[in-house]
Amino acid sequence: MLRPAVVWHAGAMASRAGTVAQPQDLVDLTALLDAYYDVKPDLGDPGQRVAFGTSGHRGSSLKASFNEGHILAITQAIVEYRAGQGITGPLFLAKDTHGLSEPAQNSALEVLAANGVSVLIDARHGYTPTPALSHAILTYNRNAPAGAPQADGIVVTPSHNPPADGGFKYNPPHGGPADTDATGWIANRANELLENGLRGVKRIPVADALAAETTGKFDFLSSYVDDLPSVLDLNAIREAGVRIGADPMGGASVDYWGEIGERHHLDLTVVNPTVDPQWAFMTLDWDEKIRMDCSSPSAMASLINRMSEGATFDVATGNDADADRHGIVTPDGGLMNPNHYLAVAIDYLYRNRSGWNPNSVVGKTLVSSSIIDRVADGLGRKLVEVPVGFKWFVPGLLSGEGAFGGEESAGAAFNKMDGSVWTTDKDGILLALLASEITAVTGKSPSQLYRGLTDQFGAPVYARIDAAATREQKAALGKLSPSDVTATQLAGEAITAKLTKAPGNGASIGGLKVVTENAWFAARPSGTEDVYKIYAESFKGADHLKQVQAEAKALVDGVIS
Question: Is the domain 226-457 a CATH 3.40.120.10 member?
Answer without folding.
Answer: yes
